Amino acid sequence: MPEEKAADEPLSFDQKLKRSMLEGIDRFQQEIDTRCEGMECIQDRFEVLELSNLIETSENELPKFVQSLLENYNEYSADGILTEIPSLRRFLKAAKVPTEESLSWTSLRFLKYAVEYELFDSVSNLTLELRFFFTLCISVASCEKSFSKLKLIKNHLRSTMNQARLSILAILSIEISVAEGIDSDAFQNL
Fold first, then answer.
1. Residue 46 phi/psi, 5° resolution?
2. pTM
3. Residue 162 lies in a domain
4. Burial of 110 by CB count in 10 Å (0-12 exposed, 13-18 middle, 19+ buried)?
C-alpha cells in the first residue's frame, strides 16, 4: 500500500540475525568500555607506582601522584611514600640497574625485584601499595563471577527458590572444578 512505511515490513531471517548480531556486538563493546574505564580509574589512582614516575619524576611533581592515591586510600603515609622513592632510586643506582632496563619493567617485575633483594623493609609503603594494587583486579573479577553465576542459577523459572538452596547452588556453580571431583555415589549409603 502506498501509505505503509518500510518499518512495518517484517524482517527476513537474515535481517533478524544481522540485527541480533549487531546488538550483541554493541553490548559487548559497551561492557568492554565500561570495564576499561574502571581499570583506567584504578590505574590513575596508583599512578605513583609506574616505574617512569618512580624513577624519573621530579621531587616537586611526586606529591601530586601521591595525593591521588591518598584521596582514595588513607592507609598510606604521604611522607613515608615520598621518602621511600629517593631511597628506591639510590638502591637501583647502587645495584647498577640501567635506567632503560628499569623503565621497561612492569609493576609485577618491580615487585619481584623487591622480593629478590628483600626491599620490603626499606620501601615498605611502596611494596604494600603494589601488593594492594595487584589484589584489586582479582577481587573485582571474583565478585563479577559470583553475580553472573547467580544470574544463571536464579532465573524466572527458579524464582521461588529459598535462600539456603540458592546459596548452595551458587557455591557449587562457582566451584565447579571441585564439585566435579566429588563422588556423589559415596553419599547414597549414608
1. -100, 30
2. 0.55
3. no
4. buried
d(C-alpha 190, C-alpha 186), whole Å: 8
All cell numbers assigned to 73: 586510600
Q: Are 103 and 56 in contact (CB under 8 A)?
A: yes
pLDDT, one tens digit for every residue, the chain (190 residues): 556 555 667 888 888 889 889 998 998 898 888 878 877 888 888 888 888 888 888 888 888 888 888 887 777 778 888 888 888 888 888 889 888 888 888 888 888 888 888 888 888 888 888 888 887 765 555 556 666 776 776 665 566 777 787 778 778 877 787 778 887 777 666 5
Torsion angles phi and psi, residue 147, rounded to 5? -70, -35
Q: What is the tally of structural domains in the chain?
A: 1
Residue 157 forms part of a structural domain: no
Burial class (CB in 10 A: 0-12, 13-18, 19+), 82: middle
Asked whether residue 156 is assigned to any structural domain, the reply reads no
Q: Quick one: cell of 151?
A: 544470574
Distance, CA of 114 to CA of 122 (rounded, Å): 10
